[in-house]
């Protein structure tokens, strides 16, 4: 497979110039590298330091693993497809790549949804938080975040449920030799949009809306109490810590929604527009979504002091010292 044979005008193969191709390869390689390095540091930090072995952090660890695998297994092949306008890796691997892409992208929003629920209980009911969000609960959340997208994505693509009822249109619109783009019917497109974006996204927005007002109300209450008893600093610290964590994870959620919104809306509208949206635009929007996987570690580094301290120890090789796993990252 060396070139795409275009059947429809929407599949016109407009090759980039050599300079543009080189620039795109460089830019996308930087995104991939940032995704791999940043998320690998999160994975190593939480795995190595015993202080970080908390239920919430295992959720972050699992989400970082999703982002790392997206950068490792999906993005390099998407880069070649985007720049070359062709798929050189065969039909079977195209299905594997598309399934893996959908699975990992969907797993990300599942993780962020569960993290929002975790933060809700941390702020709303801190006294019973540890009892409710124990390691078993987190394990179930992680299992759902991985298994449901995997079954859905691989089942849909390999059973060709995504093109059921529009097989002829698929062959006419997307059936070009060397091409590999996700194609959805109206029903499958709406189902994917609702299941993996709209419903979880609505849950996250509602949860963080509640968190904001709960944290704001608690802050006013604690501030008033502290003024009366004259011990503001003593009582403010635990609440400020939880509020900061909620804001940080709220930013993670916001970045995710901003990055993936354009792609999901494009995906769900395309079947209703007769699949008139150019594949190049879809590729660009998918890369905008991939950026989310590179941004998450940056958010951690900016807001979490423990992450910055862990990063320094990893960069300078201090994690290879004896008992480094017991280092205090919260001083």
Automatic annotation (TrEMBL):
Gene Ontology molecular function, alphabetical = trace-amine receptor activity
Q: Which SMART domains match?
A: 7TM_GPCR_Srsx
Membrane topology term reads: Multi-pass membrane protein
The alphabetized list of GO BP terms reads: adenylate cyclase-activating G protein-coupled receptor signaling pathway; adenylate cyclase-inhibiting G protein-coupled receptor signaling pathway; phospholipase C-activating G protein-coupled receptor signaling pathway
- What Pfam families does the annotation carry? 7tm_1
Is Disulfide bond among this UniProt entry's keywords? yes
- On the tree of life, the source organism's domain of life is Eukaryota
Q: Which family does it belong to?
A: Belongs to the G-protein coupled receptor 1 family.
What name appears for this protein in its UniProt entry? Trace amine-associated receptor 1
What lineage does UniProt assign to this protein's organism?
A: Eukaryota, Metazoa, Chordata, Craniata, Vertebrata
Name of the gene this protein is made from: Taar1
């Amino acid at each position: 497979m060396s070139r795409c044979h275009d059947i429809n005008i929407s599949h016109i193969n407009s090759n980039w110039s050599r300079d543009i191709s080189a620039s795109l390869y460089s830019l996308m390689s930087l995104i991939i590298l940032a995704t791999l390095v940043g998320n690998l540091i999160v994975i190593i930090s939480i795995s190595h330091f015993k202080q970080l072995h908390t239920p919430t952090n295992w959720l972050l660890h699992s989400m970082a693993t999703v982002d790392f695998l997206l950068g490792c297994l999906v993005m390099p092949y998407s880069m070649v497809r985007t720049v070359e306008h062709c798929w050189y890796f065969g039909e079977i691997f195209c299905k594997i790549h598309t399934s893996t892409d959908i699975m990992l992208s969907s797993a990300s929003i599942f993780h962020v949804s569960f993290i929002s629920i975790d933060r809700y209980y941390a702020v709303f009911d801190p006294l019973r938080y540890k009892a409710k969000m124990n390691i078993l609960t987190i394990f179930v959340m992680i299992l759902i975040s991985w298994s449901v997208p995997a079954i859905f994505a691989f089942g849909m693509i390999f059973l060709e449920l995504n093109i059921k009822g529009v097989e002829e249109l698929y062959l006419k619109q997307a059936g070009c030799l060397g091409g590999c783009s996700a194609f959805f019917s109206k029903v499958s497109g709406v189902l994917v949009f609702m299941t993996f974006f709209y419903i979880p996204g609505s849950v996250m927005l509602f949860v963080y809306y509640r968190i904001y007002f709960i944290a704001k109300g608690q802050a006013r209450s604690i501030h008033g109490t502290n003024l009366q008893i004259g011990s503001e600093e003593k009582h403010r610290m635990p609440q400020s810590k939880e509020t900061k964590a909620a804001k940080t994870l709220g930013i993670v959620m916001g970045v995710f929604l901003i990055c993936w919104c354009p792609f999901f809306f494009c995906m769900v509208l395309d079947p209703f527009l007769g699949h008139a949206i150019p594949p190049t635009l879809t590729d660009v929007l998918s890369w905008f979504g991939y950026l989310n996987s590179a941004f998450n570690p940056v958010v951690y580094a900016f807001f979490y002091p423990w992450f910055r301290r862990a990063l320094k120890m990893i960069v300078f090789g201090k994690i290879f010292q004896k008992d480094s796993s017991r280092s205090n990252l919260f001083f």
